[in-house]
Amino acid sequence: AALDNARLDFANNKCVVVNGGGVQNKRFNFDYVFEPGSGQDDLFEQVAKATVADILQGYNGTIFAYGQTGSGKTYTMFGTPKQKGIIPRCAEALFDGIQNAKAEVSEVYIKCSFVEIYQENVRDLLNPTGKKLRIREKQDGSTYIEGAAEEYCENPGDIYKVIEEGNKHRAVASTDMNSTSSRSHSVLIISLTQRLSNGTQLEGGLNLADLAGSERLDRTNVSGIGLQEAKKINQSLSALGNCINALTDRTRTHIPFRDSVLTYLLKDALGGNSKTVLVVCCSPDGIDVFETLSTLRFAERAKKVKNNAQVNTRLTVEQYQKLVEDLKRKLKEREKLIGNLKKALANGGQ
Questions:
Q1: What Rg value do the Cα atoms of the chain yield, rounded?
Q2: What does the alpha-carbon distance between residue 147 and residue 231 come to, in Å, rounded to a whole number?
């Protein structure tokens, strides 16, 4: 009976109000709030368009959907053939941006990988051999998936094919709350390399993640393999929450990225070198009020995370040599200045 009066109200396009689940008139403020019935085009304009523009400038970007099972995450990210979601729209916008690139861009390369994290193992959706892939760390601390298949793409249609092929192999099952429940987290990784006329390379990466939904086992009524899947999903989402908590707690010096495969793979998106957008999907139904509150509280904490995104450039050998020569010149100037100061001190400051 307590849930009969529970509801989610939309105060404006930046605020939602929750009543029920132990709270009254609890307000949550975000960058943008989409009411039920909002279109996929509106979502893309507000959520992803700027991120695609950032990738074209050489930044890394991440967009991921989070929320309870059955709340619309996969629809938000992938959509349908008639109502394209964020991912296909990003593909189209990316190639539109390349077509309108400045004259100084002489070469462009785009390649895609598509993986899923299933029961804490990384599996290649483009080469489904069952082999478990490993996450490796580069010298700069960023991560990559060793051995993941990469497909070069020349147009949006090539990316659609990657998505279609990968989704054939993604783990999906029916539960009491969702007839097509994702049993894994999927991550589409788009790498963009632009070579400029002066030889410099801009390297932008876009991670598009559709996270499996959190589940209350008493409502989904899964058993056997489904129960194991649900436990692993909830475990990884809990680890994600722990990382968000640690990143927003100034007293914490250790961030537990390695506690789950998901957080380790996306650690740049969480406080690192990435422009990150979190899309939280909620049910407005009163029966889901506890899950909705949990999702909104997670988003409220995540909004406080500060990232440090930087343009990723790779210089030519000649440019590096010039940089070294400039540093040598500055070093000589400093040494000369230090020498003059020492002489002045030896002469009593004269």
A1: 24
A2: 27
